[in-house]
């Protein structure tokens, strides 16, 4: 028998598992193992799959619900990890005639060489003239905190009225950007996520994390992203776009005659669940549209689909993959609140749950669509997409975000945790991609 291997990350060890530890009736079972780690730099050890060997042939199935990871920093000499255990969920793939053992393949990704020069001048953009100003301040503070452990990042604060500051002093973007080699963009919403700051940074020749101007602008517009999804055969809720100059009476008549209700009303270009309302009646719809259009240029009214709200993150050029998708994260909120509002999403009332409650085919479809939309929209470095998964109707795509939030309780942070990626590693990876022009 030869161990499973493939191009890219190498197999670190293969452990034989007696078949009786795995169920035969389709249920999942679990076991614990101890690992032997040989001395080398900090590694992320990722359990990729369970392989069954028979007649020199490897049958590989992914661990359900997703690969698991464990980051280890072994001291010198051979270390027996006698106090650290990793709990695995196994998919039973054995049949009686397939032999008596599984083989567990543990794959090691050695990305310790991906480091940034200590002298690199890293600017972190946060704040900005956006309704998501406070969220951006928190995201930027989170990035600064993790960068400060190795580097001396430059905190570039942008006020609500769009004035740039460095070291507490108001300065023009041109003067500030002369002092940085690369920008980590922690802005959200208007200006930071709609292509505006991307155009400015490109004009001054400063590399930055995240997507470029046009993909950022498109992904910020929910109507355009829904159109793109439909073009490539992805399901999205029925919807109508309402603009400030439209007749509300005519639009309300059109919406109620063409879309099942209740309805979800939200800004066409906003994030963080800002300005989201549920409308059961024409009066509700009129009030919701008037409220949203008083603050935004356009609104979307779409059918409300009951189901699990999921969010999935994808990273570029990571762990040997052009696009590395993370397992979907389930966003739960109080049952008395049928839609996810900004207040609930950014409090403890909306816990982020993993493992999720999805069936494996639905979870895989969520990951696949996240990759498709990331590629179709031309997004770079990272993004996340949101979904509703109905038990009866399946997976529905809602939107993509080119600038996911970075706080400790964010979907991004939870996603990184599920696959054993530290925030420092995520930040470094994206700064490297920016510097390399990818």
Structural features:
Immunoglobulin-like; alpha+beta; 3 domains; D-amino Acid Aminotransferase, Chain A, domain 1; five-stranded antiparallel sheet; Rossmann fold; disordered N terminus; 11 helices; 438 residues
Question: Strands, helices and their partners?
Answer:
Blueprint: E1 10-18, E2 29-33, E3 36-37, E4 43-54, E5 57-62, E6 68-72, E7 79-80, E8 86-90, E9 101-109, E10 122-127, H1 133-147, E11 154-158, E12 164-166, E13 169-170, H2 173-177, E14 182-185, H3 196-203, H4 213-220, H5 222-231, E15 239-243, H6 248-258, E16 263-267, E17 277-279, H7 282-293, E18 298-303, E19 308-318, E20 321-325, E21 329-331, H8 342-345, E22 352-353, H9 360-376, E23 382-390, E24 394-401, H10 411-418, H11 423-435
Parallel strand pairs: 10-11, 10-14
Antiparallel strand pairs: 1-9, 2-8, 3-7, 4-5, 4-6, 4-9, 11-12, 12-13, 15-18, 16-17, 16-18, 19-20, 19-21, 19-23, 21-22, 23-24
In angstroms, what is the radius of gyration? 24 Å
Assigned CATH class of the largest domain? Alpha Beta
**Main beta-sheet strand count, sense and barrel state:** 6 strands, antiparallel
Can you give the mean pLDDT? 75
CATH architecture of the largest domain: 2-Layer Sandwich
- The end-to-end distance, rounded to whole angstroms, is 40 Å
Strand proportion: 25-35%
Strand tally is: 24
What would your notes on this structure say?
Strands 19, 20, 21, 22, 23 and 24 form a 6-stranded antiparallel beta sheet that branches. The longest helix is centred in the C-terminal third of the chain and has 17 residues, at 360-376. Mean pLDDT is 75; it is low at 1-113 and 340-348. Strand 4 and strand 5 form a beta hairpin. With 438 residues, the chain is of the alpha+beta class. The protein has 3 domains: 10-109, Sandwich (Immunoglobulin-like), CATH 2.60.40; 122-218, Rossmann fold (3-Layer(aba) Sandwich), CATH 3.40.50; 220-421, 2-Layer Sandwich (D-amino Acid Aminotransferase, Chain A, domain 1). The radius of gyration is 24 Å and the shape is globular. The protein has 11 helices and 24 strands. The protein has helices spanning 133-147, 173-177, 196-203, 213-220, 222-231, 248-258, 282-293, 342-345, 360-376, 411-418, 423-435, and strands at 10-18, 29-33, 36-37, 43-54, 57-62, 68-72, 79-80, 86-90, 101-109, 122-127, 154-158, 164-166, 169-170, 182-185, 239-243, 263-267, 277-279, 298-303, 308-318, 321-325, 329-331, 352-353, 382-390, 394-401.
């Amino acid at each position: 028998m030869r161990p499973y291997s493939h191009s890219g990350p190498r197999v670190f060890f293969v452990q034989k598992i007696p078949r009786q530890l795995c169920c035969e009736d389709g249920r999942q079972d679990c076991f614990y193992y101890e690992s032997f780690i040989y001395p080398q730099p900090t590694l992320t050890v990722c359990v990729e799959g369970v392989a069954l060997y028979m007649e020199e042939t490897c049958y590989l199935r992914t661990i359900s619900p997703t690969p698991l990871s464990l980051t280890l920093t072994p001291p010198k000499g051979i270390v027996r990890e006698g106090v650290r255990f990793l709990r695995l969920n196994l998919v039973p793939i054995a049949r009686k005639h397939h032999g008596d053992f599984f083989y567990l393949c543990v794959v090691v990704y050695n990305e310790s060489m991906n480091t940034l020069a200590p002298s690199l001048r890293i600017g972190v953009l946060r704040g900005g003239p956006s309704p998501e100003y406070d969220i951006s301040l928190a995201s930027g503070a989170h990035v600064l905190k993790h960068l400060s452990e190795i580097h001396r990042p430059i905190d570039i604060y942008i006020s609500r009225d769009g004035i740039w500051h460095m070291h507490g002093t108001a300065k023009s973007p041109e003067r500030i950007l002369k002092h940085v080699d690369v920008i980590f963009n922690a802005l959200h919403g208007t200006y930071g996520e709609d292509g505006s700051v991307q155009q400015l940074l490109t004009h001054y020749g400063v590399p930055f994390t995240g997507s470029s101007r046009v993909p950022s602008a498109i992904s910020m517009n929910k109507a355009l992203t829904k159109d793109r999804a439909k073009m490539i055969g992805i399901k999205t809720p029925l919807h109508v776009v309402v603009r400030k100059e439209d007749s509300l009476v005519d639009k309300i008549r059109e919406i109620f005659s063409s879309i099942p209700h209740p309805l979800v009303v939200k800004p066409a270009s906003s994030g963080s669940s800002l300005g989201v309302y549920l409308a059961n009646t024409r009066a509700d719809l009129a009030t919701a549209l008037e409220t949203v259009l008083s603050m935004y240029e356009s609104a979307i009214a779409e059918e409300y689909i009951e189901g699990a709200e999921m969010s999935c993150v994808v990273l570029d050029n990571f762990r040997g993959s052009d696009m590395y998708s993370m397992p979907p994260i389930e966003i739960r909120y109080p049952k008395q609140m049928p839609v996810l509002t900004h207040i609930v999403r950014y409090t403890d009332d909306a816990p982020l749950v993993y493992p999720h409650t999805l069936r494996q085919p639905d979870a895989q479809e969520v990951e696949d669509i996240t990759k498709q939309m990331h590629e179709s929209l031309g997004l770079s470095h990272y993004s996340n997409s949101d979904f509703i998964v109905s038990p009866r109707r399946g997976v529905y795509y809602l939107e993509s975000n080119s600038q996911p939030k970075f706080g400790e309780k964010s979907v991004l942070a939870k996603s990184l945790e599920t696959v054993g990626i530290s925030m420092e590693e995520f930040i470094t990876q994206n700064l490297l991609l920016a510097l390399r022009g990818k």
